[in-house]
């Protein structure tokens, strides 16, 4: 069994979920989202990068796309502060504070919450920036012993750091297992991406439109 958020998952189930997600027969996001070539470099975001969440069935509306365009300079500033090779497993305790840069403390533009920002930026720093959506919230903040609790005044910035620290803890607890899963079938995925596939599979049936940071 391996710890995932507030519960434990049988290793055989995790392997099966990852295999099903990656085999291409059910038209999930891999490899289209992960390998999308928009022509931008690792420190910049063009329009194609802002639309990448579409390949994870999280297409921005026209209004939220406009919000992402407004936020683009701040997101690029965050990318410049986060080294391209930074790994959530090997980084320092202080490095995890960089996750707070992903969303400003002030209220972001309409329609641009943690889900959208995480899915835009994960491709740029797949070893460091977690993916996030309502399924992740369910697994990490609702079921079992859920390590993340609702906090009425928590900002998105604070939530991202807390989520990253908890995911890092889960990965380190069974590191050899996650490393083997990430390289299975000759693929080379980040540990965060593999963890997200397992969390996404575990959280099936909990999808909704709510984009929460525990507030």
What is shown here, in short?
Helix content is 42%, strand content 3%. By secondary structure, it is mainly α.
Report on this structure:
The protein has 215 residues and is an all-alpha fold. The chain has one domain (2-202). Helices cover 42% and strands 3% of the residues. The protein has eight helices and two strands, in the order ββαααααααα. It has helices spanning 11-22, 47-50, 62-81, 114-121, 134-141, 156-173, 175-182, 191-202, and strands spanning 2-4, 7-9. The chain has a two-stranded antiparallel sheet with strand order 1-2. Strand 1 (2-4) and strand 2 form a beta hairpin. It is globular, with a radius of gyration of 16 Å. The mean pLDDT is 90.
Question: Which labels suit this protein?
Answer:
215 residues, mainly alpha, 42% helix, two-stranded antiparallel ribbon, single chain
Give the helices and strands, then pairings:
Blueprint (H helix, E strand, L loop, with lengths): L1 E3 L2 E3 L1 H12 L24 H4 L11 H20 L32 H8 L12 H8 L14 H18 L1 H8 L8 H12 L13
Antiparallel strand pairs: 1-2
Helix pairs in contact: 1-8, 7-8
């Amino acid at each position: 069994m391996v710890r995932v958020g507030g519960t434990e998952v049988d290793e055989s189930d995790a392997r099966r979920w990852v295999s099903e997600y990656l085999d291409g027969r059910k038209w999930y996001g891999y490899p289209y989202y992960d390998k999308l070539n928009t022509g931008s470099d690792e420190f910049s975001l063009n329009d194609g990068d802002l639309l990448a969440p579409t390949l994870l069935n999280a297409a921005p509306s026209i209004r939220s796309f406009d919000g992402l365009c407004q936020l683009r300079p701040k997101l690029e500033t965050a990318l410049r502060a986060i080294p391209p090779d930074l790994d959530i497993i090997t980084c320092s305790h202080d490095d995890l504070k960089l996750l707070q840069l992903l969303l400003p403390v002030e209220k972001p533009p309409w329609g641009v919450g943690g889900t959208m920002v995480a899915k835009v930026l994960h491709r740029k720093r797949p070893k460091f920036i977690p993916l996030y959506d309502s399924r992740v919230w369910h697994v990490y903040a609702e079921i079992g012993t859920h390590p993340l609790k609702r906090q009425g005044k928590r900002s998105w910035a604070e939530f991202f750091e807390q989520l990253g620290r908890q995911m890092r803890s889960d990965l380190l607890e069974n590191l050899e297992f996650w490393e083997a899963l990430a390289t299975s079938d000759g693929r080379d995925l980040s540990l965060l991406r593999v963890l997200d596939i397992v969390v996404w599979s575990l959280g099936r049936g909990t999808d909704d439109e709510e984009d929460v940071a525990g507030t």
